[in-house]
């Protein structure tokens, strides 16, 4: 997701914006990763999120998998052969965020998504949110820059859906 001057500039095909490292580092510290977690990045892009996880002292050695439409692995249709994951973590393409969350919830015990804060606010999504309430929201107190040319035009948060009861619940500011 990125909202930088979206009316003025052409969006990248597939919403291909890399997540700045500090954004991922901020949520990595808030998560209880457990031992040998199986982690899926469903739209890996250039690998910005995975890079932080792999190099973080906070994340234990993990098994990683990924999808990426530009590598002919469409997350929404990919056959995982009944595999499950401990975590799905990503910054999804804005236009497919709901679909990404829904599929992730069928695959993982804990889903962690970077979303615009105003993704919460739509009347159209009200029923959807009531069906899929997150267990925690970690609001970024600083706006990220996804283009390297100034900060984004909107605020973001990490949304967490946890079914294990191991993650903290509620509203936080990073
Ligand atoms: C906002 S970028 C985020 C990239 C990466 N997750 C990150 O945080 O740096 C969204 C990514 O989703 C990919 N994408 C779009 N539709 C997809 C799909 N159906 N399945 C898998 N990847 C997709 C794009 O190619 C792009 O790399």
Automatic annotation (TrEMBL):
Source species: Alicyclobacillus macrosporangiidus
GO terms classed as biological process: methylation
InterPro entries per UniProt: DNA_methylase_N6_adenine_CS, SAM-dependent_MTases_sf
SUPFAM superfamilies: S-adenosyl-L-methionine-dependent methyltransferases
GO function terms (MF aspect): methyltransferase activity; nucleic acid binding
UniProt name for this protein: Methyltransferase small domain-containing protein
Upper lineage: Bacteria, Bacillati, Bacillota, Bacilli, Bacillales
Annotated coiled-coil segments of the chain: none
């Amino acid at each position: 997701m990125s909202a930088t001057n979206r009316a003025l500039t052409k969006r990248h095909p597939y919403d291909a914006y890399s997540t700045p490292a500090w954004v991922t580092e901020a949520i990595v510290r808030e998560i209880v990763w457990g031992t040998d977690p199986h982690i899926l990045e469903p739209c890996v892009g250039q690998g910005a999120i995975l890079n932080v996880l792999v190099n973080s002292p906070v994340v234990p050695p993990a098994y990683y998998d990924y999808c990426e439409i530009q590598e002919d692995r469409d997350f929404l249709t990919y056959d995982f052969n009944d595999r499950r994951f401990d975590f799905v973590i990503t910054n999804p393409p804005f236009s497919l965020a709901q679909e990404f969350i829904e599929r992730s919830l069928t695959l993982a015990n804990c889903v962690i998504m970077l979303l615009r804060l105003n993704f919460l606010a739509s009347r159209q999504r009200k029923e959807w949110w009531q069906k899929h309430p997150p267990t925690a929201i970690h609001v970024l107190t600083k706006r990220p820059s996804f283009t390297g040319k100034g900060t984004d035009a909107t605020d973001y948060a990490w949304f967490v859906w946890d079914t294990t009861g191991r993650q903290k619940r509620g509203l936080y500011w990073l």
